[in-house]
Write a structure and sequence with these properties.
Radius of gyration: 24 Å
Number of domains: 1
Strand content: over 45%
Shape: globular
Structural class: mainly beta
Number of strands: 25
Number of helices: 10
C-alpha cells in the first residue's frame, strides 16, 4: 500500500457520510483518540494514516472485518488524493493495490495524478419523490438536482474543492418540501422567496501540513461529540464563507473560524453584514479522554471587526471593551468533554453558557434572568452484530429560555433563521435515542426516536407574539409579554421593564407542546456510483400553537456521488 503522505485535502462530510462514521467508530473502538471526530471535516490523512501500524489495529480487524471494509472504501473513494506516486514510494504490493482500486473502485468522470498534482472529478444527478401529510392534508413532493465537483491537491500541502449543484422543485409547496430536508429547510432563497429553482455550492482553498490547516471559502463545518446533533455547530448548519484555522499539536488542538452568515429580521427579511467567530481549545491528555473550551461571538451592522479576528483573543473580554460592543454583540461560552470508559463506548457532555451571573445562579425570580444556558449529555455504545457495527446512542438535551437569542435580533446564534447549533428552539428539551446499523460502509439503516417538550411563546390569532401597551411618561410602548423565550429569533423580552411584567424566565414557562417523533432512514449503494435513500418521518404533537400529526416519506435515487 502506498504511503499516506499527501496532507492537502479534507473529506467531504456532505456527500460522504461513511468517512465521518468511520472516524466515530474508530475513536470509540480505541483506534484513535476519543476527541478526533469532534471537529469536522478532518484531513484525509486521519482517515488513512497508520491504520495497519499497531498490534491493536490488527487484532481489531480480526474481530470486526467491517471496519476493514470502511478502510478499503475510503481508499477507493478518495484515490488518488491519498498518495503521492513518486517512484521511490512504489512497490509491487502498492502497485497491485492501486490497480485493484482503479479496476474495482469508484467510477470517476476525471482522475488525474502526475506525482505532484492530483484531481478527481465527478458528476451527479438526483431525483426524489415523496408525500407529506399534515392534519389530513396531503401533498406530493418532487425534486431533481444535477451537479459536479472537483477535489484536488498540488504537492503535499495545497488543496482545493469546488462542488456546484442546481435543482428544481417539481411538486409541493416550498415549506412542505423544506420540512423533509434539513439542508433545504435552512435555505433562505428556497423557503422565504419560494423559488422553484435552487442551487448550492462548496468552494474552498486550503494549506495543510502535519500541524496546521488553514482554509478559506465555503465548506461544511461541525463541532461536537454527539452522533445525533451538536449544541455549537450542527452538521446541518447551512454553509457559510469563513476562514478556518486548525492547529493540532500532540495532545493540544486549537481550532478557530470566523465567517459571514445571513441574518433575518422578525418579518423574515434578510439582514446583511452578520458575522460569527469561534475559538476552540481542546486537550486530550489520554486517548480515552478529551475536553474543550469554546468561546463564540456574533456581531452585525458593520464590517469585519479586527479585534474579533485575533485568533488568540478572548471574545467575552473583547466584547466588554466598549459600550457599543458590550450592548450589541452576543458572546457565548461552551465547555464539552468526552471519555471512553471502555472500548466501544463514549460518554459525552456539553455545557453552553449564553449569559452568566454567578451571584444569581439559584435565583428563579426575574433578577436571575441574566443566566441563560443549555446542556447536553449522552452515551454511545457500539456492538458487533452479525459481524457488522451497530451503534446505539441515548442523549438528553435541554436549552433554557432565550438561549441562542439576543436582545438585538440580528445577533442571535442563527444562520438563515435557524439555530447554528442543535435543531431545537430555546425553552425546550428532548430525549433522543438513535440506532444505526451498517451492513457495509455505504449501506445502513438508522432509526431515531425523540420525545420533546417546548415552552412556546404565546401568540395572538395572527400568529404574532402577544403584546400589552404600557404608558411610560406619556409614551405608549407595546411590550411583548407573550415572549417566554421560546424562539431563537426573539430575545427582546428577557427583561421586561414594567414591574408588573417582570417574571422569572423559568424553564417551560409558556404554551407547552409535547412532541413524539419516529424517523427511519435506509441508505444503500445498490451498485457502484448508484445510491438509494428512503426516509420516513412520523410526528405527533399535542399542546402548543400547532398541535397535530405530521407524516412524510421520500425516496431518492442518485448517481455519481
Amino acid at each position: 500500500m502506498l504511503s499516506a503522505t499527501a496532507a492537502a485535502q479534507n473529506f467531504d462530510i456532505n456527500a460522504e457520510s461513511a468517512s465521518a462514521d468511520y472516524l466515530l467508530l474508530r475513536s470509540m473502538r480505541g483506534l484513535l483518540p476519543i476527541g478526533e471526530h469532534a471537529v469536522l471535516p478532518q484531513p484525509l490523512t486521519i482517515l488513512n494514516g497508520q491504520f495497519h501500524s499497531s498490534a491493536n489495529d490488527a487484532a481489531f480487524l480480526d474481530a470486526s472485518s467491517r471496519l476493514y471494509d470502511f478502510q478499503r472504501y475510503i481508499e477507493d473513494y478518495y484515490a488518488p488524493l491519498l498518495w503521492l506516486s513518486d517512484s521511490d514510494k512504489v512497490t509491487p504490493d502498492s502497485t497491485a493495490h492501486w490497480l485493484e482500486l482503479q479496476k474495482n473502485g469508484h467510477l470517476r468522470t476525471l482522475s488525474y495524478d502526475d506525482g505532484n498534482a492530483s484531481v478527481i472529478g465527478d458528476v451527479t444527478g438526483m431525483i426524489r419523490g415523496g408525500t407529506a401529510s399534515l392534519a389530513g392534508e396531503h401533498s406530493a413532493i418532487g425534486l431533481a438536482r444535477s451537479g459536479g465537483r472537483a477535489i484536488g491537491r498540488i504537492g503535499e500541502n495545497f488543496g482545493f474543492m469546488l462542488d456546484l449543484s442546481n435543482g428544481v422543485r417539481l411538486e409541493g409547496e416550498p415549506r412542505t418540501v423544506a420540512s423533509t430536508d434539513p439542508i433545504l429547510g435552512r435555505s433562505f432563497k428556497f423557503v422565504s422567496d419560494e423559488q422553484k429553482f435552487f442551487d448550492r455550492y462548496i468552494g474552498y482553498v486550503q494549506y495543510q501540513s502535519s500541524w496546521l490547516r488553514a482554509s478559506f471559502g465555503r465548506q461544511p463545518f461541525a463541532l461536537g461529540f454527539s452522533p445525533v446533533d451538536n449544541l455549537l455547530f450542527s452538521r446541518n448548519t447551512p454553509l457559510f464563507d469563513a476562514f478556518l484555522l486548525d492547529v493540532p499539536y500532540k495532545s493540544i488542538r486549537f481550532t478557530s473560524t470566523h465567517g459571514a452568515v445571513e441574518g433575518v429580521d422578525t418579518a423574515g427579511n434578510a439582514y446583511q453584514n452578520k458575522y460569527i467567530g469561534a475559538h476552540r481549545l481542546s486537550i486530550t491528555p489520554s486517548d480515552w479522554f478529551s475536553a474543550s473550551i469554546t468561546d463564540m461571538i456574533v456581531y452585525s451592522g458593520r464590517g469585519l471587526d479586527f479585534a474579533y479576528l485575533n485568533p488568540l483573543g478572548f471574545y467575552v473580554s473583547t466584547g466588554l471593551g466598549t459600550p457599543q460592543k458590550s450592548r450589541d454583540d452576543n458572546s457565548l461560552l461552551a465547555i464539552d468533554a468526552a471519555l471512553r470508559p471502555w472500548n466501544g463506548a463514549m460518554l459525552y457532555g456539553d455545557l453552553l453558557i449564553d449569559d452568566l451571573s454567578f451571584s444569581r445562579l439559584d435565583d428563579t425570580s426575574w433578577t436571575g434572568n441574566s443566566n441563560k444556558n443549555a446542556w447536553q449529555i449522552g452515551l454511545s455504545q457500539t456492538f458487533d452484530a452479525a459481524d457488522s457495527p451497530l451503534l446505539l446512542t441515548g442523549e438528553y438535551v435541554r436549552i433554557n429560555p432565550f438561549v441562542y437569542s439576543h436582545r438585538g435580533i440580528a445577533n442571535s446564534w442563527t444562520h438563515l433563521g435557524a439555530p447554528i447549533g442543535y435543531d431545537m428552539q430555546p425553552n425546550s428539551d428532548r430525549w433522543a435515542l438513535q440506532a444505526k446499523y451498517w451492513f457495509a460502509p455505504r449501506f445502513f439503516v438508522q432509526i431515531d426516536l425523540d420525545y420533546g417538550r417546548h415552552g412556546e411563546n404565546y401568540l395572538d390569532s395572527a400568529g404574532k407574539i402577544i403584546t400589552k401597551d404600557y404608558d411610560i411618561g406619556g409614551r405608549v410602548i407595546a411590550y411583548p409579554v407573550g415572549n417566554v423565550g421560546g424562539d431563537a429569533l426573539r430575545g427582546d423580552a428577557d427583561f421586561l421593564y414594567p414591574e408588573s411584567f417582570r417574571v422569572g424566565n423559568n424553564f417551560l414557562r409558556g404554551n407547552i407542546s409535547y412532541t413524539r417523533r419516529v424517523r427511519l432512514q435506509f441508505f444503500a449503494e445498490i451498485m457502484r456510483n448508484f445510491f438509494a435513500d428512503l426516509r420516513l418521518n412520523y410526528q405527533n404533537r399535542n399542546g402548543g400553537n400547532m398541535p397535530g400529526e405530521y407524516f412524510w416519506a421520500t425516496f431518492e435515487l442518485r448517481v455519481g456521488y
